[in-house]
Amino acid sequence: MRKATISRKTAETEISVEIDLDGTGQFDNKTGVGFFDHMLDQLARHSLIDMTVRAKGDLHIDDHHTVEDTGIALGQALVQALGDKRGIRRYGHFALAMDDTQVQCALDLSARPFFVWNCDMPSPKIGTFDTELVREFFQALATHGGITLHIDRVHGFNSHHIAEAAFKSVARALRMAVETDPRMGGVLPSTKGAL
């Protein structure tokens, strides 16, 4: 059962996350931040990870804590759902084209968090959403999911397309990495004996 439920409550946010790594990309995400919900829906749909997210945050201040804390909870849920990681592919990569934009993602479910972000956006806002929060989400996801995560914008000039391509490329890379590999036969994908 590669499923997980995480609840996280602080003075700033209250987050609950449910995921199923062997799902079909079903999603039900409600964070109070419209554009972020749209991005989480993309993450679920294109990774084929069923995902339900509920978040209540201090949106009267801004969206930062809600977005970052959702990344933390999703990272923790991934760790829980993956268990000892036996039999998974472990690595994933994807180059995603969306209109003017191409974003590439490469990741390793290594339990060694490291984040590289070469995906700056030309505008500070997408509607009312701060574009810098895309980076904050992925930083939190990588740190708390134990992911070596590299996201690179090859080109693009529309911030909405860049953000969406980032979420979709990460989703497709995650889909590859969490899948079980029939050739692995339940073996840990490492020569070290632990991940």
Note the main attributes of this structure.
195 residues, alpha+beta, 4-stranded mixed β-sheet, 4 helices, 10 strands, globular
Distance between the termini: 19 Å
The biggest beta sheet reads: 4 strands, mixed
Question: What percent of residues adopt helix (DSSP H or I)?
Answer: 25-40%
Mean pLDDT: 97
Task: Label the overall shape.
Answer: globular
Q: Gyration radius, to the nearest Å?
A: 16 Å
Question: What structural class is derived from the secondary structure elements?
Answer: alpha+beta
Q: In sequence order, what are the helices and strands, one letter per element?
A: EEEHEHEEEEEHEH
How many beta-strand runs?
10
Per DSSP, what share of the residues sits in E-state strands of 2 or more residues?
25-35%
Question: Counting H and I runs of at least 4 residues, what is the number of helices?
Answer: 4
Order of strands in the sheet with most strands: 1-2-4-3
Q: Low-confidence segments, ≥5 residues, pLDDT <50?
A: none
